[in-house]
Design a protein that fits this description.
The protein contains 12 helices and 12 strands. The protein is of the alpha+beta class. The chain has a 5-stranded antiparallel beta sheet, sandwiched between helices. It has a 5-stranded mixed beta sheet with strand order 7-9-10-12-11. The termini are far apart.
Amino acid sequence: MRGEKPAPRHRPVNDPTPLLAASGLLLLLFLLVARGLRRESKRHEAPPPAEQIPFLALEGALRDASRDRAALARERDRAEARRREVERLQAQILGSLGSGVVALDRAGRVRTANAAAGRILGRHPLTLVGEPLEASLPAPALSEWVARVVATGEAVERQEVVLPLERGERWLGVSVSPLEDAAGRRSGAVILFSDLTEVRRLREQVEARMRLDSMGEMLAAIVHECRNAMGAVGGYARLLERPELPEGERRLAVEGILEEIGSMEAVLGDCLDYVRPRPPRRRAVRLGELAREVARAAAAGSGDGVSVTVQAPEEVVVQGDPDQLRRALANVVRNAVEASPAGSPVELRVEPRGAEAAVAVVDRGCGMAEEVREHLCDPFFTTRADGTGLGMSIVARILDAHGGRLEVESREGEGSTVRLLLPREAA
C-alpha cells in the first residue's frame, strides 16, 4: 500500500561480508597510521617510540609479502609463457617432420597424429584421433608390436609392414617406442613410420633387372662352355671317321667325347642348381666320413700329384642333405687343388666349434686378392677362363639353406683357408 515502507532486509547470520569489510578498513587505517608515524619520526630525525616499533615491523612484513607475491606472479607468468613456447615448438617440429607420428593410449586408441601421418594414410590427421589402431593402421604385426611395447617398455625398431589402404598397398618402415606420463608411468606408445612404397618398387625393379642380367650372363656361360665342348666332340668324331685310326687312339677319342659330354652336363647342372635350388633332405651326416669321401675323389682326379689329406679328431654330426653338402665341399676342394702347385698338399680339417662344426679346406697355393675374396660368392664371378663362376655361389646357397655360413682367409702368395660352418648336432 502507498505510504508503507518496505520491510528491512536482514542479512543471514552467516554472511561474512560485514566482517571482511571491517577487517579491510581496519587494515587500511593501520597502514595509514603507521605511515604517518614513520614520516613524523623521520621529520624529527629521532628513533620511533617503542610503542610504534611493532606497527613499523608489521608494515615492513606486509610490504615484503606484497613484493614476494608480485615476484611469484611474474615468475608464474614467465613459466607459463615458456610452457606455451615449448608446446608451440613441439607442434611445429611434429608438423614439419616428413615421417608420420601417431601417439596411442594404453587401450590402443589414437591420441594425436601429425600432418605427415595423415598424408601417408590419405586422411586428415584430426580424423584419426580416437580411432583404434586397427582402423588407422590395419596391420596385425603392428598391433602386436604396440601391445608388446606397452607391456614391456622395450622399443621395436626398423620393421616393415604392408597396409591394405583404399588407394592400394603401402609399405611402411615402422618403429614403436613407449610413451610415458609426467610420473614416468607407461601411458601408451608412439609409432614413427615412413612410406617405403616407392623405395620398395625401385628395389624390386633393380632386383628384376639384376635377375635378367644374371640370366643373360648364365646363358652366355652355357653357350661358351657348350660351344667349347661341342668343338672338342666334333674334333674327336672326325678322328673316329678315319678307318686307319689305331685302336688305342680310337679309344682315347671315345674317352675324350665322354669327358666333354660330362663337362657339359656339369655346366648345365650348375645352372639348374643356381636357378632352381632344391630344398635339403635332412638326415644325420658325419662330417669326417663326408670329408674322406670328397678327399678320395679329389685325389683321384688330380693330375698334378696334389695330395688331399683329412684330419678328423672326433666324430662330428650335423643335420643336412649329404648330397648337397658333398657337392659344396667338393667345389671348395676342387678350387683348392686347382690353385695348388704340383706336389703341394691340400688339407681337410673337421673342427668342432661349440654349437657349430666346421670343415676347413687349407691349401698352399697362390692365394686370393682382396677383390677376389669380396666377390668370391657372386654368381658368374670367376678368375678362370674355363669357369662358369657358379661353383662358390652354389656353395653359399647350400650353406644358407642349412643355416650355415662360409669363412674365407687368404693372402696372395700364401694360400687360402675356406671354412664351411654348419649347426652342430651331437653324435
